[in-house]
Design brief:
The chain has 511 residues and is mainly beta. The chain is built from 5 helices and 33 strands. The protein is elongated. The termini are far apart.
């Protein structure tokens, strides 16, 4: 009789090497390929080579510390660390891969059905058939009637004319409503409800099997699959496990009062886990454990971190009001927060660092040597003030413009004291500043109203064509130059014109 359902064969062993998978039967025969299943109807699984503790495993790793839950050296796995491997990656159809006590891979719960390869006594797997692929070949119909394959790698006779006649004819497993003496249990499953599919083969969807990694009827859990937590089961936090019988393992759940700190418990009785009043932000006193296994700080004394007051040695306490990413680390985006230890946490800060701008404290004759000479004056002023960086003047002449000469940043522009001038280049040249450029390289306000700023430039960074450039900033003779005013936020760059003999300041921009 052809197989009606794949099952676990305890006489077979699978040893995975670096090159292939080799199956060996109890009679000593061997073959190359995936592990196989017999025809008794139980869920298809395979067993690996027996490890030192009796577990089914593959490979013999060496040169590492086995049992620390970290794959090292030649280990194939370690505890829950399977290195990203699963049954399908090892050529099986599915199932649950595990790690043996000797840090070798345990494929005992892997199944072959579903890998598209005929293994052992499987009559079919997906679109692949071991022998018969039409109804006439199994005596249930004509050659024009095709056989199909079920999800359990058994033949599906739905297209055969004999299927559905109310008579179970081999190799049919059943007829609709006629199961004979078969049940989920007789087919090797733990339980569930067996049915007959439309193809006159057993429908195992209602059968349950603990250990297949699928949460099924009658199971509280299966491997890592569970709908519960320690908290939902009434415990005090912790990690809920699953036993080999698919029942809850609460050994790692916390239970206040059992003398062992577990789960969400901070302490247990006199066991404070090394904590003290000082570690909780107080200056002294006696820390104790409350009835709910949380710290009782009523015996602690002195204010400290966590009292909402910024004390000596604290950067903040509870909140970081007044602290910005721009001010603390020079980044425009994100938020500064106060850490549990009352220090500033700037890990949430991001963005492009700002570029600084200032108006020169010095006043210069208009013949300062063209735009290059203006750049040199800005660089000297920044260096003398200890600002560092590379600087250029906001200047245009007959052959170049400020927009063409200066860096276009997607980050903010600020005064040297951190005051925001513009959010980025586009904001800088849109005709309105967030704050006037009224502060010098020394961080003090410019001398107003005597400060006129040489620019010959519109607020958009283009040449101001009508007010002049004092012969491209080379003369103090007759003529005029376009200037800006440090008091303005809209006409900051284009406020009018002055004679070339008038002393001027410069807008200086970091590059």
């Amino acid at each position: 009789m052809l197989a009606s359902a794949a099952c676990f064969d305890p006489g077979r062993a699978i040893v995975v090497t670096d090159d292939d998978a080799t199956t060996a039967g109890p009679d000593g025969s061997s073959g190359t390929g995936d592990p196989v299943a017999d025809d008794s109807g139980a869920p298809a699984t395979t067993t690996g080579a027996e490890g030192s503790d009796g577990s089914e495993s593959t490979g013999v790793p060496s040169g590492a510390v086995c049992g620390n839950d970290v794959m090292e050296g030649e280990e194939a796995c370690d505890g829950d660390d399977l290195g990203g491997q699963d049954c399908t990656a090892m050529g099986f159809g599915g199932g649950v891969l595990a790690c043996a006590a000797d840090c070798s891979v345990d494929v005992g719960a892997c199944i072959t059905c579903g890998n598209g390869v005929i293994d052992g006594d499987e009559p079919c797997d997906g679109e692949v058939f071991a022998a018969a692929d039409s109804c006439d070949e199994v005596g249930l119909g004509d050659a024009s009637e095709p056989l199909h394959c079920t999800a359990w790698c058994t033949l599906d006779f739905a297209a055969c004319s004999a299927c559905g006649d109310g008579i179970v004819t081999a190799p049919e497993s059943c007829e609709p409503g006629i199961l004979g003496t078969a049940s989920c249990a007789s087919l090797g499953y733990d339980g569930g409800t067996l049915a007959c599919g439309d193809g006159c083969s057993f429908d195992l969807a209602g059968c349950t099997q603990c250990g297949n990694g699928v949460l099924e009827a009658g199971e509280a859990c299966d491997g890592s699959e569970s709908n519960a937590t320690c908290d939902s089961l009434g415990w005090n936090g912790g990690e809920l496990g699953c036993t080999a019988a698919c029942t809850y393992d609460t050994s790692s759940c916390g239970s206040c009062g059992d003398g062992e700190i577990a789960g969400n418990e901070a302490c247990e009785g006199a066991d404070l886990g090394g904590a003290t009043c000082a570690s909780q932000g107080f200056f002294g006193g006696a820390l104790s454990c409350g009835a709910d296994c949380s710290f009782d700080t009523s015996g602690c004394s002195g204010s400290g971190c966590g009292d909402g007051v910024v004390d000596a040695g604290e950067d903040c306490d509870g909140n970081a009001f007044g602290h910005t990413c721009l001010g603390e680390v020079g980044l425009p985006d994100g938020l500064v927060v106060c850490s549990p230890t009352c220090t500033l946490d700037t890990s949430g800060c991001s963005g492009t660092p700002p570029l600084r701008v200032f108006v020169s404290s010095g006043h210069f004759a208009a013949n300062f040597g063209g735009v290059d000479g203006g750049d040199a004056l800005c660089q000297d002023a920044a260096d003398d003030a200890g600002l560092g960086g590379s600087w250029r003047a906001w200047l245009s002449d007959g052959s170049s413009t400020a927009a063409a000469r200066l860096s276009h940043s997607d980050g903010p522009y600020t005064l040297v004291d951190g005051t925001l001038v513009a959010n980025d280049w586009n904001d800088l040249v849109d005709g309105h500043l967030a704050h006037a450029i009224d502060t010098t390289e020394l961080g003090v306000l410019a001398d107003v109203p005597s400060t006129w700023v040489a620019t010959a430039t519109t607020a958009a960074g283009a040449l101001q064509m009508f007010n002049g450039t004092c012969a491209n900033w080379t003369t103090t003779a007759a003529g005029s130059a376009g200037v800006g005013n440090v008091q303005n936020t809209s006409t900051w760059s284009d406020s009018g014109a002055i004679g070339c003999g008038t002393a001027v300041s410069l807008y200086c921009f970091e590059q």
